[in-house]
Amino acid sequence: MSPYSVKVRSYARYKAIPHRWIARNAANEEEYKQYARLPIVPTVATPEGEGVQDSTPILEMLESRFPQPSIHPEDPALSFLSALIEEFGDEWGNKLMFHHRWFDPVDQQSAALILARLNLPQGTNAEVAERAAAVLARMSQRAGFVGSSPATAPLISAYFFELVDLLDAHLVTRKYLFGARPSFGDFGLAAQLFEASVDPTCSAVLRARGPNVLGWCYRMIDPRNDGAFESWDQLKPTLAPILAYVGRYFLPWSQANARALEAGEAEFSVDLAGSKYVQAPQKYHAKSLAALRARYAQTAGDPALRQILDTADCTAYLA
């Protein structure tokens, strides 16, 4: 039920990296603590006894050790766009998934039951019900961390619908976001939408409005290299609208979040496509935005990339 763990597992399967998937529970908590600095998933224990956490650093570490087949297009512009979508998936995609998972009672109860059963695979129905109630009580109070509230709920649902429609059009003629093989961006975004697909509300939306998105989500559980990355000219008709979405919602929100943290504000407001969006700032995302800007600085001289980002209204937020 962790999109970030699913993301890492998907990558390990794609690269055929020998691994064991170990569900964290009370029985292995002490072993987990040997490798984890923070109580978060995913955590990777390497054969050398090293503990690595956080999905993006994990993928970057593994990519350096298992470079083929590469998840980065050779074209520098496309490589950066893939990294931008990876960050977009981790932060904005998670907002859309997490809000819907823990907002409506039907989704809350479904997720809590699944998590409780995963934690107590051999538990009785009564034990699982008790654990589910505890999970629900805890997680339903955490929605504010991603900006979920009764005020933002209609906006977040609209963002989700719009993204599904754009992605579905893009995936009509291709298996993955950048062609016939998965990219860095696929791993970041698909994992969030896969998790959305197991919850009642978002599952219904994806089945009704995004069959190509749903197929991609499940394809990314065990992705394959079925060919080359496409060129920008091939991708542009349906990828450019997705990038414009990133420039319309994700990057303005990212910038406002970072400024609020720098100013020590308890809450910030940002205009997203004409609607006021309000939430408490997210500390982690300010760090990942800084890393994205550093990556952009390395390729900012690429005129093709600059033109693509200018057209999508993204450049000003990355400089």
- Supply the helix-strand structural class: mainly alpha
Q: What is the number of beta strands?
A: 4
Just name the CATH architecture of one domain: 3-Layer(aba) Sandwich
Helix content: 55-70%
Nearest-integer average pLDDT: 95
Report on the biggest sheet: 2 strands, antiparallel
Rg of Cα set: 19 Å
Q: Could you spell the SSE succession in H and E letters? A: HHEEHHHHHHHHHEEHHH
CATH class of one domain: Alpha Beta
Total helical segments:
14
Low-confidence stretches: none
Distance N to C terminus: 35 Å
Strand content: 5-15%
Spatial strand order of the main sheet = 1-2
Q: How would you describe this protein?
A:
The structure is a single chain. By secondary structure, the protein is mainly alpha-helical. The chain has a domain at 3-65: Glutaredoxin (3-Layer(aba) Sandwich), CATH 3.40.30. The chain is built from 14 helices and four strands. It has helices at 3-14, 29-35, 55-65, 76-103, 105-119, 125-139, 153-170, 184-197, 200-209, 211-219, 232-263, 283-299, 303-311, 315-318; strands at residues 43-45, 51-53, 268-272, 275-279. A two-stranded antiparallel sheet has the order 1-2. Strand 3 (268-272) and strand 4 form a beta hairpin. Helix 5 packs across helix 6 and helix 8 (184-197) packs across helix 10 (211-219). The longest helix has 32 residues, at 232-263. It is globular. The relative contact order is 0.13. The mean pLDDT is 95.
